[in-house]
Every structure is written in C-alpha cells, then in structure tokens.
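As promised in the previous annual report, we have extended the structural survey to additional targets. Below is the entry for Beta-lactamase.
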Amino acid sequence: MTPTSSRRTSRLVACSLLVPLLGLTACTGDDGLDQAIENLVASIEDHEVRGFDEAAEALAEYPVEAMAEEPVRDGDAATVDLAVTWDIDGNEWSYELPVTLGLSEEEWSVDVTPQLIADGLEEGEVIELTREYPARADIAGAGGEAIVTERPVIRYGLDKSWIDPGQTERSARRIARALGVDPDELASRAAQTGDQAFVEAIVLRPDDAKERVPADYSDIPGANAVDDTMFLAPTREFARDILGTVGEATAEMIEESEGALRAGDVVGLSGLQAAHDEALRGIPAVTVSAASGEGDDAERRTLVEWDAVEAEPLATTLDVKTQQRADAVLADVPGGSSLVAIRPSTGEVLAAANGPETEVHAAATVGQYAPGSTFKIVTALALLRQGLTPDDTVSCSETLTVDGFEFHNFPDYPADKTGDITLRDAIAHSCNTAMIAQYADLDQAAVRDAAASLGLGAEADLGIPAFLGDVPETDGATAHAASLIGQGTVLTSPLAMATVAASVAAGQTVTPTVLAEPEEAGSAASPAPTESGAPEETSPSSADPLTHDEAATLRALMRSVVVDGSASELKALEPAVAAKTGTAEFGEPDADGDLSTHAWMIAVQGDLAVAVFVADGPSGSDTAGPIMADFLGRM
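The corresponding structure token record, generated without further manual editing, is:
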C-alpha cells in the first residue's frame, strides 16, 4: 500500500523511575564538580541517562545537545542550569534544565529525575513521538494542468476476516490466479498475517480493473476489492521515466538520510518524484507526548509540537495531450522506441515517451545511440560555414574508400541521384558518400562546433537525468569520415536530436527544459528578449551561436527532404513539415556480415520539434516515418 501521507507513533513500554543515583566520579586536583558536570552533559547527549531506554526510546535516533552554565556551590551541594536542545526532524526543542548535585564520600551525584530525559516528563510516563506528513503535492504540466495527483484505484486481495483460517491458502491461490499474480508469493504472505488481515494482491486503476479482473472474482471466498486513491499520472505509461514513482522508503534510503526518514515514510523512488522529493513530501507535523497507561486508555500530555509544512507542487513543461499522443503512437511499436517533442520558441519539453517494449530506462532522455543521417543536419551546417551553398555541386558516388575502409549508401538509395548532385539533393536523398567526401576539407573541430551550435553536447540542468549528445575528437581519417554521417563515435539521444530540430526551427541554439519557472505555474519561461525583441541567442559552449540565416537554410534543406526526398510521407501534412531521416548501423555483424540498424526521423512543424527513434528498424523513412506522420497527424 502506498498512502498519500504517513502517520507513525513510537510507543515505549511503561516503566517506573525509582530516581536512582547517577554516579559521577570526582577527578584528582579538585573535588571533581566540573568533571561531574561534564559527565552529566555527556550522558544526556549520548542518551545514557538511566531509564532513557525504557522511557524515551522514541527519541533515541534524535541528536541532543546540552550546555552547562557556571555551577553555584553551597557546601556539599551545587546547582547548575543546563541548556538542552533536541533536533527532531529539523525542529528545535530547547529548554532550561536546573540540576542539583550533591557531594558524598568524595563523589558527586545527581538524582535522575524524568526531567533529565525530557522536559516535562513525569515518573511513570513514557515518550511517544508522532510524525504525520501533509498530503503529497501534485506534479503539474503545461498550463498548470495536474499530471500526478490523487486518482482512484482499487486494491484487490484476500480479506482473511471473511473466511475460516483453513481456507487461507486455497483462497489466496485462487485470487492470485484470477488477478494474474504469483500464487506462491500471495499464499506465503497470507500465511504470515493475522486472521483479520487484508492481504493485498494488486492495485489497479478502475479502467485497468475492467480488463484484468474476471467477472466472477467476487465469488472467490475472501476476495475483496477496496476503493482508495494514489498519486498517479493520467495513465500508467505517461512520461513514467521522467515523473518516476513513489513508495515506502527503503532501508538503504533510511540509512543514508541521516535520520530524516523513518520506516513507513512515503518518498519518491525515481525520476522527478525522487529528485524533488523533499519539496513534494513537505515537512511532517511532529508531536512529542508524555503517556501513561496502555493503548486507547493511555493518558497523553503534549510536551512539544510543530505544525506540518505543506508540500510544494512541482511545475513541469509536459503537455498532457502531447504526451498522450506520443504514448499512443508508440503503443504498438515492437522493440525499443522513443519520441521527444519540444516547443522551439521556449525549449519546453512537451513530451518524452518510450514504447512499452523499450528496455533502456529513460531511453528518450538518456539513451545513447548513433544518430545516423539525422546528423547530416550538423554536417550541413559545418559545410555552410565553410562557404558551401545548397545549390553547390557535391559528388555522390556509390561507394567511397577512406583510409582502406569502404563506405556505401543505404541499400535503397535512388540510383538516379548519384554522380554530381547539389548539396540540397544530397541532404534530401541522404547520400552518405557526398558527406564523407568532404572529410579532408572539413575538420572535426568544425563538426563539433556546428553540433554545439545546434544544442548537442550541452551540459544543461533539466531537473532530470539527460544526455544531450557527444561529438568527440576522432582518431584517424576513417573515424572522422564516419562522424560526418552520424556513425563512428558520435552519440546522441532522442532528446538531443529533438534539440537539434528545435534549434533549426527557433533560429537559435535551444537548451531544452523540463521544469517550469515557479512563477509561470506550469509553463517554461522564454529566453530573455534582446533590444530588438528577439530572444537572446544562447549556446551550450564556446561554439559560434546559430544564426537565423543559417537556420533558415537548414530548414529549407529539411523541407527538401519532405518535398523531394526520403520523408515524402510527411508531404501532405499541414502546416508544412521539414524533416530529416536517419538510419544508423550498430552492434556486431550477423552471419551474413550485416549490421542491425537504428531508425530515426527528426521534424519541425510550426512551433514544434520532434525526434522519433526506433531501436531496431530497417530505415528511418520506412520505420520512423510512419510514426512521425501518425504523431504530427494527431496534433
């Protein structure tokens, strides 16, 4: 069970403090009063005052400091005022504690009263400490629309109070089989609980329950269904790697929290829920009470209490409808797949989806893959900066050998687009050899600079783990040539390639963001305007900023991919779409010497930039293209 807040009470067995004497041995050189006081302070700070374990175990994990004032002596008696301060879940409990000491047979001693354990504690009482968290805060999306919020669920399981003990195992196994969970595991847990326990088998959303729970479920003896709520996104798939999950704190988390977490506390376990857990969780109300008696009949007095601090909602840039469309178009894609959508004008990530068969956690934002021919947009920018124009001629040969390694075009490359063609046609039809032929005149530094101008390799804090690409230095001509077509050592993520498309659309280097500015309550802040009114251009490194003219040329090249080239499936879409396909080889050759391929497509449509990635597909146009067309067609 994952409650929305937790309430836990620490309770100790009642004991009788008989006020024994705490021996404080005198030291040589004087009569030992100062040393006796030091020992008293240490015993308080170390939780070693006699009777502490019985009366105040609830405070055992909390630090306490004691400071002694100058003692006042009167013959064989002395008094000292102690300033005691407890740190309880970040709350300060301070009080003054007067202590009387007596000297007898050269040894100072102090009466151990309950007040030495905690201010206000009386003989026969024990300390209870209650922590109650406020309701966990929502995670909101664009426009402040709630994404993760309390939603109805149904808890299915075995209610042992409804059956005879002898029926437990049989009913547990029947319930498990009906719900599609492990019968052995449920039967084992059921056997270890009391006769009145509810043994939970599974928690389902109402819509999922309609499909998963058989109509005759309630006919099973002891089968129960309990209505409840949980903090959930709109669907099980909705940006799950970004949003993360919530559950009870693990033993490891409790140990690493240095006392901030306790068993039973509900915390974020991954994603944004974990990264922003303290704000989303809030600060619990804490009450320290003195109790006498047992159970419901116990009498309790409040010694000190602190109010809860309400949890703070987290605003993200995710757009609910866009994310749901992304999830829908990937729902039936076999193998790994991802889609990222960005609003170029602001850099807001509107959707980051992974298909249901994706095995890499958060592949859309942290996956590292060769981008293949989508990277030719980077190479094209580097060539433009060297003076080449879209209408200039480049050579597209069937194969090209660099330093002994033979490069080739993809198998279905149109034969009538080989030979001397324009740079525009080379991009439109995705000629590998035309790009590779530039390797001697286009150094890796220029490629790296162009990549950075389009947002690749940025070290941006998105509030989530993110990989924005790596275009490393290359060792040798072959590796450099391979990088010009997005192979070799070049690595990107779907998020990184969506950023490239967004930069082209925006006419400036875009840095993506997932967290909205607090004052915007759900929408990301736009880049600061310049005196001209245009957003200020930013760059992830010392690279030259992308200019509006460069971006306009790149958009025209990408439009030619749709109108004349490999992304013709997007041609009929309105508003007009500009795109680039990509197919990237990876892994080890099979028995026939063939390599597996990633399928890519990036596209821009108005104020929208999208990257589609399929982990194992024959080509960008045939595999990623239909997904892109479906996604943009739903907008």
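The first helix runs from residue 33 to 45. DSSP finds 19 helices and 26 strands in the chain. These points will be discussed at the next consortium meeting with the crystallography subgroup.
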